[in-house]
Design a protein that fits this description.
Helix content is about 40%, strand content about 20%. The protein is of the alpha/beta class. The protein folds into 2 domains: about 5-135 and about 325-370, NAD(P)-binding Rossmann-like Domain (Rossmann fold), CATH 3.40.50; about 135-320, 2-Layer Sandwich (Dihydrodipicolinate Reductase, domain 2). The protein has a 7-stranded parallel beta sheet with strand order 3-2-1-4-5-6-15, with helices on both faces. Strands 10-11-12-7-13-14-16 form a 7-stranded mixed beta sheet. Strands 8-9 form a two-stranded antiparallel ribbon.
Length: about 375
């Protein structure tokens, strides 16, 4: 049973520890939960800032619904960072519901988000609890931009682009869990929203994103389709939504594009255990260990939304820094609201819908993590 109101599940992982950093910064006590208490204590001692000033406990818990339900009991909010979520996420979502906790997670895996909406959205609503996937840099920054664009009357079509800087020449700077999620996308269908219907992207789909921040177009992919078409499917303001993601300083998207096409041609009909081995090999060869903490001088992001209506066009842009550090900040911004009982939505909802995009943007701006601009075209 959790002693404190906030649980960080996956506390020994990269994103979990960055969430803990921000909880400590805001003087919020927490229960850290992971499969190994010893590893969690060691990793937190190495990585977590100001740990000596924190109020916390560490629990070692198996990844089962029953075990996590017992561990989450007594808390109000679960911050879940254990991925790939398509593989592990549903267990924690069910356990949080059983324990009477709000559930935040950090993934934009579209197949998982669709599944959680259908299986648990109404159950969370009936319980008066929030289920908010993708409370993270990706895709909350893009949704903030979309919501800024939607402030212009008449906008009903949204296109978003997330352009990130990683590490030139490779995928360093992306966590092991994120890399596993990336290659796991090969198994999943990916959708965009067109006239309120989800339409499947072709395996070969790609984009050349154009932004005035860059000299050249940026090669981008649907990246599982992203969470935004799902979040906007039942939003009366939006008829169509399409999203893409690109890295502007390395070729990871072209490598991923090639892998996805090879998967479709050669691997998609193999037995599951063979597919698992292929994905594990891809992850191990690209991201064998936890990356170093992000630096604001190198990790930069540009997220934009183009909103169109019959006679209106607007472009909103959010410039940001340190995607994973910003994810910890967004998780903590959401926790503050939930502990205060201040949420606009329960059930399945994005962080922007639950807490207001202006609140989240302000939290980021006040901490030097983002700035936004809006241009009518």
């Amino acid at each position: 049973m959790a002693k404190y109101s906030v649980v960080v599940y996956g506390a020994s992982g990269y994103t979990g520890m960055l969430t803990i950093d921000w909880l400590i910064d805001q003087n919020i006590p927490f229960t850290a939960i992971a499969r190994s208490a010893k590893r969690t204590q060691e990793m937190m001692a190495q990585r977590v800032v100001r740990l000596e000033s924190a109020t916390y406990e560490i629990l070692e818990v198996e990844h089962t619904v029953d075990a996590l339900t017992k561990a989450f009991k007594g808390a109000k909010v679960v911050c879940n960072t254990v991925g790939p979520f398509s593989q592990y996420g549903a267990v924690a979502v069910e356990a949080a519901l059983n324990a009477g906790c709000h559930h935040l997670d950090t993934t934009g895996e579209q197949a998982y988000i669709l599944d959680m909406r259908e299986r648990f959205g109404e159950l969370y609503r009936q319980a008066g609890l929030l289920l908010a996937p993708a409370t993270s840099y990706m895709y909350t920054f893009a949704e903030i931009a979309a919501e800024l664009a939607l402030e212009t009357p008449g906008i009903d079509c949204i296109e978003t682009g997330s352009i990130c800087r990683g590490t030139r020449g490779g995928v360093a700077g992306v966590t092991v869990g994120s890399t596993a999620s990336i290659f796991g996308m090969a198994r999943m269908k990916q959708y965009y929203l067109w006239e309120k219907n989800l339409v499947e992207h072709a395996v070969t789909s790609s984009f050349d994103l154009v932004d005035p921040s860059f000299m050249q177009p940026i090669f981008a992919l649907p990246w599982s389709g992203t969470s935004l078409p799902i979040f906007y499917q039942n939003d009366s303001r939006v008829h169509s939504c399409i999203s893409a993601v690109g890295f502007y300083d390395n070729n990871v998207m072209r490598l991923a594009h090639g892998f996805f096409q090879k998967w479709d041609a050669e691997f998609k009909d193999l037995p599951t255990e063979h597919q698992d081995a292929i994905i594990k090999g891809a992850v191990d060869s690209t991201t064998p260990s936890m990356p170093a903490r992000e630096r604001t001088t190198t990790v930069r992001t540009v997220d934009f939304a183009i909103g169109r209506g019959q006679l209106a066009t607007v472009r909103a842009t959010v410039h940001g820094l340190t995607a994973y550090i910003s994810t910890g900040a967004l998780q903590t911004a959401a926790v503050i609201k939930l502990l205060d009982g201040d949420t606009k939505k329960v059930g399945f909802a994005s962080a922007c819908k639950a807490f207001d995009h202006r609140y989240l943007l302000g939290f980021l701006e006040q901490r030097g993590l983002a700035r936004a601009s809006v241009q009518t075209l």
